[in-house]
């Protein structure tokens, strides 16, 4: 015979468990809706990038019909089933498509690294070029153009020098900050000093450069995606596959560091190590992007701000959102520069600045009810 007291106790326990579950349901459902909105935004932006890329590949200075473009793409993917024409096939497969791929990868890298820089430096004006990476790359190009000296010869002379000097700048700043204490203020001040130093050295080389050398330096400094080709794809992809997951693994640490270094240390986070590790990875990724595309401004500054307004400050969602928005902005700006004044092509870096400055001024002047920093 079952003990009535035990039966009553079981019923009471079930009621407590049931009431506890019901009590937590609204909070759990609210959190699920909160996460669902962020995921919906990320998926929507990713789909928009895909559709926009599919549209951009069909437009350009040379008129090619939509049917011809996709016929060429299918013929390259499935040879023997579709026929293509030589000239139009070369234009679509070797010029337009690599340019779009470069825009997506460069925009994603600039957006993610801008988000990392702003989180690490705790500065809303931080960008991938805050630490002098772009000025170092410009100086490397100036050395290659004027003196013909580089770590790699041949067609990779400019690329090799841009990568080498941008990484040297980043490593010097990280070493200096580590020696003096890796605070955000130290990194910013060191970056400003390096920026001025290498900008001055680049101007000195421009002063002594010939017309052809000056044209190379100015053209590279404006930023352009036309130099990217399929031969560079594996290099850029390899750096992305290495750096991006490692940066994402530090998202929770950066969330905790937002409450202050002292509080983060009390929770077991080595803030100096996290700051140095993320800065090194971001510098490697940005140096790789910059050496192939030149100086492209404002993507790393604007994209994280736009993403933060939608998905908030949780870096688990802010990282991918900043990258996707960076890719969306860059391919849109590049397509606008290619087609707005046909047959003249406006460099990508100029278009990103022209589109980014009004939005940046809007961020400054807008009176937000909600502060994101």
UniProtKB/TrEMBL annotation:
The complex is composed of two ATP-binding proteins (BtuD), two transmembrane proteins (BtuC) and a solute-binding protein (BtuF). It holds the Pfam family FecCD. The chain crosses the membrane at residues 39-60, 72-93, 100-121, 127-149, 156-176, 230-248, 276-303, 315-333, 345-365. Residues 1-27 are annotated as: Disordered. CDD domains: TM_ABC_iron-siderophores_like (cd06550). One of its GO terms (cellular component) is plasma membrane. GO terms for biological process: siderophore-iron import into cell. The keyword NADP does not apply. The keyword Transport applies. Keywords: Cell membrane, Membrane, Transmembrane, Transmembrane helix, Transport. Required for corrinoid utilization. Probably part of the ABC transporter complex BtuCDF involved in cobalamin (vitamin B12) import. Probably involved in the translocation of the substrate across the membrane. GO terms for molecular function: transmembrane transporter activity. It is a multi-pass membrane protein. It is found in: Cell membrane. PANTHER family: ABC TRANSPORTER PERMEASE PROTEIN MJ0876-RELATED, FERRIC ENTEROBACTIN TRANSPORT SYSTEM PERMEASE PROTEIN. It comes from the Archaea. This is Cobalamin import system permease protein BtuC. Signal peptide: none annotated. SUPFAM superfamilies: ABC transporter involved in vitamin B12 uptake, BtuC. Belongs to the binding-protein-dependent transport system permease family. FecCD subfamily.
């Amino acid at each position: 015979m079952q003990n009535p007291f035990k039966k009553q106790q079981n019923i009471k326990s079930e009621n407590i468990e049931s009431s506890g579950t019901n009590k937590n349901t609204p909070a759990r459902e609210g959190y699920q809706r909160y996460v669902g909105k962020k995921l919906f935004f990320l998926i929507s932006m990713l789909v928009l990038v895909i559709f926009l890329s599919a549209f951009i590949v069909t437009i350009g200075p040379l008129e090619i019909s939509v049917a011809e473009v996709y016929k060429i793409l299918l013929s390259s993917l499935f040879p023997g089933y579709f026929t293509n024409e030589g000239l139009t096939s070369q234009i679509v497969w070797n010029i337009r498509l690599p340019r779009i791929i470069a825009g997506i990868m460069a925009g994603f890298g600039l957006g993610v690294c801008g988000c990392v820089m702003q989180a690490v430096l705790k500065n809303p004006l931080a960008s991938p070029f805050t630490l002098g990476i772009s000025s170092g790359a410009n100086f490397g190009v100036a050395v290659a153009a004027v003196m013909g000296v580089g770590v790699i010869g041949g067609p990779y002379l400019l690329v090799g020098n841009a990568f080498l000097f941008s990484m040297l700048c980043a490593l010097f700043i990280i070493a200096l900050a580590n020696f003096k204490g890796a605070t955000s203020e130290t990194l910013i001040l060191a970056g400003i000093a390096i920026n001025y130093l290498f900008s001055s050295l680049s101007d000195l080389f421009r002063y002594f450069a010939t017309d052809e050398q000056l044209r190379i330096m100015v053209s590279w400094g404006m930023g352009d995606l036309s130099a990217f080709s399929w031969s560079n794809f594996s290099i850029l992809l390899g750096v992305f596959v290495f750096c991006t997951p490692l940066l994402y693994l530090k998202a929770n640490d950066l969330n905790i560091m937002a409450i202050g270094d002292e509080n983060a240390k009390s929770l077991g986070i080595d803030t100096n190590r996290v700051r140095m590790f993320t800065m090194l990875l971001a510098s490697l990724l940005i140096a790789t992007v910059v050496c192939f595309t030149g100086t492209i401004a404002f993507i790393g500054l604007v994209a994280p701000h736009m993403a933060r307004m939608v998905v908030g400050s949780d870096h688990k969602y802010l990282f991918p959102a900043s990258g996707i928005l960076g890719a969306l902005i860059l391919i849109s700006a590049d397509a606008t520069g290619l087609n707005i004044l046909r047959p003249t092509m406006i460099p990508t870096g100029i278009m990103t600045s022209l589109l980014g400055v009004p939005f940046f001024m809007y961020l400054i002047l807008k009176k937000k009810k909600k502060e994101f920093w």
